[in-house]
Every structure is written in structure tokens, then in C-alpha cells.
Fold these 3 entries.
Entry 1:
Amino acid sequence: MGSIMMVLSFMGFTLPPECSAYWVGEVGQPTSEDRDKRLRNMATRHMAKGLAQNLVYYARLLKAHPQTSVGGKATCCEMHADLDAPV
């Protein structure tokens, strides 16, 4: 998953911190049999909550301050307006 996230960031995607969640617990059991246990797992809940909060925060941040590349120039703010955007 780290490799996919690195490629996405190189392609210009914004990935907030803690942008993934995963199951912490036993493996090998059919998901249909331990669904309730997975939903009640506090570590997984904590990760899912942080994931959701960070995604919403970054979505609002990018909506308020969009970052685009126009004509090969960085346009994130006036201070960087004269810098060439990475290719």
C-alpha cells in the first residue's frame, strides 16, 4: 500500500496523514463469521475515525485553497508564483 500511496503523491494527489485503516486481529477466519468482532475492535475503530477526520479536513482545505498547475508554474500561493512546477 505504501508504494501505491507514493506513486499517487508523485502524480499530484494529496494524501492526508493516516489515510489508511486496516484490521488488527486474527486472520484466516471467514469475514462473515467475525464481522461483529471486527466492527467492535477499538484499534480499527480508532484508525477509521482518524482516517475519516483527516480526509474531511484535507478535502475542506483543498476546496478552500485549490492547488493547480497552469502553464508549468506553481500556483499554490503568490509567494511561489514564479517557481516552476515540478514535471
Entry 2:
Amino acid sequence: MATVPKIPPGVRAVRNRFEAWRKAKSGREKIPERLWAQAAALGKRYGVNLVSHLLRLNHSDLRDRIGAVRAPKRRMAGPAFLEWTPAAPVPCAPAATAEYFLELETRPGRVLRVRSRGASVADVAELARRLVEAAP
């Protein structure tokens, strides 16, 4: 069952003006600028989606009228290369060399995988911290 949205103050009067204009118009007349101006003011205050629904207006047209077109987000480029020099390894037998596989999700859908041999746990933790800080 669909719920009826609560009509904010001031929207009902503009809605009535739109309905009166729709009944009185003949054919495919353009919406008068004074009605667009009132709808745009309400859209700025209550949101384009709600106002376009309540006034039965095209969402994109109302959005364009109030200038709410959003520019694409600019993403900062991360470093192309991150140099990491682990501390000097402690000499040990080759069979006992530790190997770590690090997998970091820097943002949804973007996974960074790193394989390290001969580094300590502290070194791998430091690498992970630096990678997360450098991720855009």
C-alpha cells in the first residue's frame, strides 16, 4: 500500500495554483514563469524529488530551474608509486622466512593486494597504514 507524503507548509497553495492553471489552460501551453519560480523556491527548500512529485512536474526540469545540477565529484589522484623499505631482516633460515599477503579495500570495489616476504609483522602493519593514508 502506497503512503501519501506529508505536504509541507506552502506547497499546498502552490499545488492549488498549478491545478487551477492546468484546468484553465488550452492545449499544450508552457507553464508560466511565475509558477516555475514558485516551484523552484519550494524545490530549494524541500528538495526537488518531493516538490516535483507533489506538483506533478518533471524532476529534471525542476532541478534545472533551481540550478541543482551537481558537478561530478573531483577525486584526488593517489600516488602512482609508494616506496616502502622494511627494516633490515634478521638473518634466519630460508625455510623460516615469513610471508604475508595483505589485502586492503581502499574504497568499495577497489582492492589492493600486496605480497611480502621476509618483513616483520610491524613492517607489514606500517605498510598497511601508509597505503590506507595514501589511498584517494
Entry 3:
Amino acid sequence: MSALGMTADAAKNRANRNRKRVGRTRRPGIDTPLWNALAARARVYLKKRGAKSNLARILGVPRQRVSDYFVAGSQAPDAERTLQLLFWLIARENLGAIETKPALAE
């Protein structure tokens, strides 16, 4: 390869590096406040032994992926799994509300 060809390839690579990445998946962090709030609410229910494994089965992902979502914070689920997680969380919160209600006097 000639020096001119190598220079053209280097310029093309540099242009690709500086391009704005449209449609790129966001990583959890300060730029994702809604995910942070959802994850914080879910962590309350994931402290019990086996809870992460059960959630992984529900979401259809490996257990390690659930750990990546909530412990490491290195990944976030796709849209479908986020909706499944939201419904799981609502069910847990409603179940907790039912269990903590005082018994009605008969």
C-alpha cells in the first residue's frame, strides 16, 4: 500500500471517529435519571436471596445480566425488558401494599 493510500485511510478513520453516533444505546449514569429511579426502586426487592435469579427468569436473560443492570450499573435492558421490569415492580409494590394492610375487623 502506498503512503498516499495509507494517508487516505487514516483520514477516513479519523472522520469516522469524530462522527456523532446517532441511535446509540445509552449507558446507565447521570444522563439516565428515569432508569436510575426505576433501578433504585427495584433494588429494594432484589435483596432477598434468589430474587435476582427469579427476575432473570422472568426477563429471559442470564442472572449475570440482572446483576449488570442493578449492581454494576454497566448495562440497561432494552425497551421490552424495561417494560417487563416495570410491570414486575408494580406487582411487587402492590403485593407489599396488600401484605401490610391491617386486617379488617369482622
